[in-house]
Structure prediction request, 852 residues.
Amino acid sequence: MNFWILQILNGISFGMLLFLLASGLSLIFGLLKILNLTHGSFYLFGGYIGLTIFSKTGSFVLAVISASLIVALIGVVIERVLLRPLHLRELPQVLLTFGLLLIFADLAMLAWGGNPQTVPRPDFLRSSIQIGPLVYPSYRLFIIGFGLVIAALLWWFQDGTKLGAMVRAGVDNEEIARALGINVSLLFSIVFGIGAFLAAMGGILGGPIVGVYPGADFEVLLLGFVVVIIGGLGSLRGALFGGLLVGLLDNFGKVFFPELALFTIFAPMVLVLALRPAGLFGRGA
Amino acid sequence: MTAFSAQSVSKHFGGVRAVTDVSLSVERGERHLIIGPNGAGKTTLFNILSGAVPASSGRTSFFGKDITTLTANQRALLGIARTFQITNLFSELTVIENVILALQPPKATQLALFTRMLGDKTLLRGALELLDHWELGDIAHHPVSTISYGQKRQIDLILAMARTPSILLLDEPMAGLSAAEVVRVSSMIRRLPGDMTVMMIEHDMDVALELAERITVMNQGKVIAQGDVASVRAMDEVAAIYLGAEDDA
Amino acid sequence: MTRHFSPLTIAIVVAIAAVGLVALPQVLPSYYLGLVVKALIFALFAMSLDLLIGYAGMASLGHAAYFGLAAYSAGLLAQKLEWNFWLAVPVTLAITGTTALLFGFLALRTRGSYFLMITLALSQLIWGMAVGWRSLTGGTDGLPNLPRPDLMQFVSLNNEVTFYYFVLIVVTVAGFFIFQIAASPFGYVLRGIRESETRMLALGYDVKRYRLSIFVISALFAGLAGILYMYFNRFVSPEFLHVERSAEVLLMVVLGGAGTLVGPIVGAAAIIGLENLASAFTERWLMILGAVYVMVALFAPKGLIGAVKSLVRRKEQP
Prediction:
């Protein structure tokens, strides 16, 4: 019984990282209509930059916040300078974001080397907590809690704030939003920045659990896409549900079918594609 | 003989009711005009009739056969053709390539991988004849993106007519045309075969009323008047809408 | 495209290319000959994708799935079951085609960026299976020492020159079929679908079926290229299937010029030449490749052939 609870908690905590990544992907696609392949790089750099800051300053909190801000800034620059001229042109956008993915991957190699690195847990989260008969790492519990807080914040932002309403208007119909006087240009940059911020946060928060290593960008990007396919593009609910589902499937897959771990994710994704191409909570393909 | 009919057709998109409980029936060879102010639901009705959009409720029949569940391409194969309000041509291809695409048999072409497109002499000749017939032979090899707007509207019509459909749905064929071009296009419409059933959406009242035999007037998704030209023109409700519409126009 | 150049010009260019390609082994050292073989194989791969992108208007990020799946199938059939070439290749193509049918059925209900994402995810999952299923595929190490086909008595494909001619013949024949399909009525229907799906439906064409057909056809040619690449390397690994491979062939198509078939050939040669050159000078060649992607996206979306076309068009209008 303990075994199952342990695995479920592991799956959920990993799933929260996926939620952080996928929510950004989903937001960016919903508003800017961009399939952002560079998102994997945001995750990777969040991890690497965060690790560097953590090891230099000893403050995990500082590392998380500043790494995410730095990556968010990089994201905004990319959006304004490189992606803006390619507005609504899918093929060039794909080539651009993929090219950046390659460039960033190589930069990371250059700066941090090819060896996988582990991020040590912050001191205040090193312990394991006793929950009934079970002893579970507090860090993972923190991730789960943190993920829920972020989900709540994003929900409040989307449904409760003026900015969120503007985003929803822009997602629905960009032209009308512009005509209504919404500063769509600023909105684009803000949302792209938020997406990058979330991805980077996932990267550094995930450091103590999965490590930071070359290739994480591609791996996490793929999982992010599976989450978005299952959950539905443009849906926060979908990103959370999909993230948790994929996190659980990934975990159980690795435990029970290590050779075909990805197949356990494949099957539900194929099922969703066959039955609901727009995703479980998606709004039309 | 009733060629085409719609029975209590409705369409709503989310909360918006674009078309509500519309019924009409058109005889074989009839020239039927659909008029109404902008947003009346005319193009949505056409989309339902041509199968481009499924109705939320109601039925559509073609020569007595229920075609409600048929897709757009299935209806096209039965002989229901349409033009589009916003010109919808294959801009990177030449005029004659556009016409050949309209002429060739859609099902058989699925297997036509090993012949040359412009090699079928019969099709080529047929396409050129069609273009010459409508005095457009000299632009046959021009890319569609380079011809004038008026010529594009004419090609739009030719594509729809290419395989001699039984029912032709024309969505604002005169939209955006100069006076001279209106004359050309309305003459094309006048020269359509007598046994072809033609339904037309149009805003240009003078021209449209000359070509029509019966009219359906729509407003806000509903039919508010239906009948032959003379009686509909005389109706108060119709005048009310159009007096109002003239103020806007 | 051919509207701008006279049949005579085209014939001369083709003749020169043909003579050049046939005479090449006599003048080129074997390392460079190998590069030309690689370029020919990727030209086929790129042309297959162009049918999908340039003609049918469906950009895919998962084309390497068929390239790699065919390579693995043919390799495994030869190594584990010792099937000969004449049996292994048709069976491999059948497997590839069936997979494309399944994937196409799943992906083709979507368009644009959705379609891109789904093709990507489906192909990365095949990649994941190749990496994970060590007992069958050798995992990240791949399958080494795969045999080249045993065609006939006196012909040994282990000779690099003979292999070059083998690839040249296969790619030329396959290329000929691809050009034919593009110029056929079927090919024009695809272009019509790309320009206006609604119009094609209104003209009676079953757009779904045409899309699925070209998806499978294009996958088969990609699979053929994958088989050739496996023979070339005598080796197959998950790299054949990775999104980097799918993106690379996409770049070749766009750089050369989508929708022209000649463009992808040029693009394939250019990228292979570039990769080879860059990796000889620096370890950071991946960054350079990334920069090429970015440059093409920003400055040359119509590709090299597109640039040539506008130059010719400008000359035609005084």
